[in-house]
Amino acid sequence: MKRLLCITLCLLILLAAPRAAAAEDAQAEDLTARCTFVSDGYGAAKERIFRSGFKSYQQFNAGATFSLSWDDGMPNARLCLQWRKLPEGVTATQYDADGAVLVSETLPAYPETVTPLSERARKVEITAGEDGMSVLYCRVYGEGTLPEPFHEWIETPQSLDYLLISTHPDDDVLFLGSIVPVYGAQQGYTGSIAYVTCSMRERMTEAENGAWEMGLRYRPLFMGFQDIAPDSPDERKAKFKYEELLLATVRVYRTYHPLVVVAQDLNGEYGHWQHKLTSRAAVEAASLAADPSFDVESVEQYGTWQVQKVLLHLYPDNPITVDAHAPLSFFGGDDAFTVAKRAYKKHETQQQYWFAVKRDDGQYAFNRFGMAYGVVEAGEDVFDNIDESLFSFYVPPTPEPTDEPTPTPTATPTPEPTGTQEPTAVPTSEPTATMQPQQQRRNRAAWIEFGALCAVGAAAAVVAVVAAVRLHGKRKDAASESAEETKHGESDPS
Predict the structure, then answer these.
(1) What whole-number distance in Å separates Cα of residue 327 and Cα of residue 337?
(2) What are the C-alpha distances in Å from 186 to residues 200, 255, 298, 457?
(3) Which stretch of 156-170, 212-226, 355-369 has the lowest confidence by average pLDDT?
(4) What is the per-residue pLDDT across 158-199, written as a single tens digit (0 to 9) for each?
(5) Could you tell me which residues are beta bridge partners of residue 37?
(6) Are 287 and 417 contacting, i.e. CB atoms less than 8 angstroms apart?
(7) Cα separation of 106 and 126, whole Å?
(8) Do residues 64 and 42 make contact, with C-beta atoms less than 8 angstroms apart?
């Protein structure tokens, strides 16, 4: 019986194991050695761009080219390029074995670009734009998971459930690092991160690696402002103007339509002046983005947009605490705190400083927020009280067929926000009876988990019953044989 119980327990453990425990995708094979490199007279180009790191790069003049060619097809191969300076007007042209052009495209201005190669391609040629091009690293990889610094980002949609506004790379981890693992990776909300400043090229890649480690899959945004030291007042006035930051933030809101914006502490976390201005702009831009009289140019291009909530780190009113202790199946059972600590290690240039991810209490708790602006009540969770039809995952119900004429829709006025250009607390009201998308997702997940456990239990019960029946049959047969032997023994005269 003990053996039967042990077998049943093992079956339960194996069947109930989370998907995250399954083997990860195989790492992509490096196919670069199969390629022949040719350059326009740049003798050291191959040596420089095939070596990783930020100290070695190759600069190409306008119109200059380099190419990679190979003899046999490479299914699902990808050309991966890391740029010292974001490429402008750089093209990648693929050729077949006869030299005919298969595809020619302008590469996007990203820190790293990943270009799928046609199976028919036998050569790819990279041509510099009018301003030339500066290549840090070049590789060709096959099918599988790409190594850092390359990630297969999903292009950021113009319909975000949440957007993090991070002054510097690593602020999104240190102070806002509970949002992406819990709501983006685990619960599936669509979101991204906008980095306001990034002066060092290394930190741009660190930001991407850290965001990917937190579970972000939509490409982060870089707003292009300079990181300026606190002891440089002249540079502050010349290179980081609040009016320009506010305008840029409004345009980000109008372009990507975030429902919830999460930004840093109004006091600058530890008093950093750029943190303070970024948080102030995040709040003020929420009302301006909905104002058709502000920045008519972006209104004509994108229209206005009404942000539903702006949450600030450590804001005292309308508090919301994210559960940073709950195990997350997306990360194999690790909690958000563990994930954020790993993500911060991706910021290699910052490890020499005293910063560290903190949770639950203290000045730097990375999971405590408050609603500083909103057109809905704060609630107890990030997405509470937001109309479900506004979310990126919303699918309108199919109307029932009817013979009645369809009524003419009437316009409804846009709700006035409760916030102003300065952070304003929103009074708390009684919870509504309407189930919020967050609750619906939790309920669906709970029912799925309950159903899975029921199935596991049923399977284990069947196994146990079958084993018990077999064991009982064996014991019955054994008892019968023993009885027969005893009977024969008693009647045998010998």
Answers:
(1) 10
(2) 31, 25, 34, 25
(3) 355-369
(4) 999 999 999 999 999 999 999 999 999 999 999 999 999 988
(5) 68
(6) yes
(7) 10
(8) yes
CA 111 to chain centre: 17
The token duo for 126 is 């990279």
Adjacent-strand bridge partners of 371? 311
Cα–Cα distances in angstroms (integers) from residue 99 to residues 32, 203, 259, in the given order: 21, 40, 49
Which residues are CB-neighbours of 80 under 8 A, at least 6 positions away?
Answer: 112, 113, 114, 115, 137, 138, 139, 140, 141, 146, 150
Strand partners, 303: none
- Give the pLDDT confidence score for residue 475 in this predicted structure: 46
> DSSP of 186-221, one letter per residue?
IT---EEEEEEE--SHHHHHHHHHHHHHTT--BPPE
Residue 48: both structure tokens together: 């420089």
Distances from the Cα of 233 to the Cα of 246, 274, 303, 458, angstroms: 19, 12, 36, 70
* Tokens linked to 442: 């939790």
Q: What's residue 398's pLDDT?
A: 82
